[in-house]
Amino acid sequence: MSHRTTASKTRADALAKAAALQAKLKYIESEAKVKAELERLKIRQELEMAEAQVVAMGKIEREQFNVLDEFPDESTKFTEDYVSAHANPDTLLPNLPNSEYELRGVGGSGKLEMKSSVSVPEGLEILKPSIPYPGWKCALDSLLGNKAVPPSERIYYLKKYLTGTPKEALEGYFLVPSDDSYKEARKLLEERYGNPIVVIDAFRKRLEAWPKIQSNDGLALRKYADFLGQCETAMQMVAGGLNTLNDTWENRKLITMLPNWLVTRWSRLLADWEAKGKGFPPFSQFRQFVVKEADIACNPITSFQALKGFQSDDTKGKRVKGAQGARNFATEVSEVSKPGKAKGRCVLCQGDHKLDYCKQFLSKTLKDRKAYAKDNYLCYGCLRRGHHARFCRNRIVCKKCEKNHPTSFHGDFKSRSETKNMQSGDKSHSVSTKSASVQTQSPEIHSGLNHMSGSSKARMSSLILPVYVSHKDNPSNEILIYALLDTQSDTTFVTDKVCETLGLDGVKTQLRLSTMTAQNQIIDSSRVNGLEVRGHNSSLKLPLPIAFTRYAIPVNASHIPSPDTAQNWPHLQGIAKELMPVSQLEVGLLIGYNCPRALIPRKVIPPSRDGPYAQLTDLGWGIVGMISSDQIEISDYDPIGISHFIVTYEVPTPSPFVNHSDEVHVCF
Question: Which residue stretches belong to region Disordered (predicted)?
Fold first, then answer.
């Protein structure tokens, strides 16, 4: 009996020990996983801190392709993800003792807090001639102070927010990363741009360059009133600097910016003021008058902008008829008055935004979005009522692929390989018929274009030349881009990206644009003056006339002439060495015939019979014509085989109060 009891007890002890070992094994495995995860996150933290230091030290330049414009944002995003994941490290270790890991969590949080405190300052504009230096200075001091940036690194942040002449003046200080260099650089900026005379001169130049305010543009009037308030503040800060604004002659200059009806109203107030024996009113009285009129013009109930909301959907959806199917797309534009820019109203949630940005709409699946648009009779191209997608002239540009369809419909189109297979599967039908069939599947592709039937498509070449573009105020800052020489356009266009790279700010305006496919389209733009251009292998600079900005200048990359193109034709082989190999440059300029010097043919090499010809201009050699008759794929961006065509971007509905007597009609 005693022997059996001892054996049972021994067995029970063995079972208990086995159970304890199994529990310990689970604990060890769990602890190993958590330790491995913490080690991985620690390494990731060190990696992110190293990346932030690389950005702060400025090891990589930011000039080419805007690569580092996105890098700091990505680094900040990774840091935020890391911080959010480690806001409470104890949640990762629910079943383990806290003594060891609490110390690690505290240490990690301290490091993370220090890293977030030295993140790159955001929200500050780059110092330009159009930005007042005192305001820029206060913003920079506030950002660097709030971010607790180490003194030795401030010089790099200062460099980030400078461009043009100010940046060139401080290049020597950027070579020595120290607090003394930063102080000396700020001292030089203060001497050159913080001088009261310089500040006052900047205010004067901005006043003199202020554009004429149109009759129904209340927002522009308010902007003018705000700037007059800045001038009044500057008068008090700098003794005697802007006191000349109290003069009658200076007041005469100021009222030339006002609409005619407002000039008459000011004249009546002036007459009442003088009738009371008070003499001519001071500048402060004029500013109060403009502020009051701006408040009236921007009244949320009775202003012109507010009354736009009473337009019917039929008026908003009315399209402009235009000729279709031509192979020449001549362009003519005229500057028009800028009606107040009104936000669209969402048809789904009735919010002050467009349907393409509606969170409620984007929460639906792609199939449900298409079904909603169909059930509510919305155009697949602009998400508005009143017309079909095939007739849409205000297509939305997708922010993901930059094609002509709403961003909310991105992904709902045939792949390029499927389109190519469909083309090769039936070579007997006409191109226009195929365009119509594709429209059923892909609303973002333009259809209904009339051109010749056939199964083959000839490759073409056009005058798309590599050029260096710069501004006359900073001729050393040049960028290499492609320029399209267009003899059928009366205007010169430049892309927003080129202006941003050159540090240029144009004057906001609107254009009425007419092409062979549409007439009198109202588009937003900016007016830029002082651009210069030269050929990629030439030192001769040509001044460009006033250029207007556009988001993009669409061309077909296969139409850019190259040395290989010239080598394929015996009569053009002599100029092959004059052509630059095709590269991934932006097409940033469209030069119209308002700059005839850039279009003058200096030499022409004609073909013996059929084939392309070569033309030499002051910007270099180009090849024009058919360069191959091989069948190629029809591009979504170039459906009728021409190099240049106008893409219609979505613009706000024109105000009913705008005078349309100056509409432009193009006849061919």
Answer: 409-452
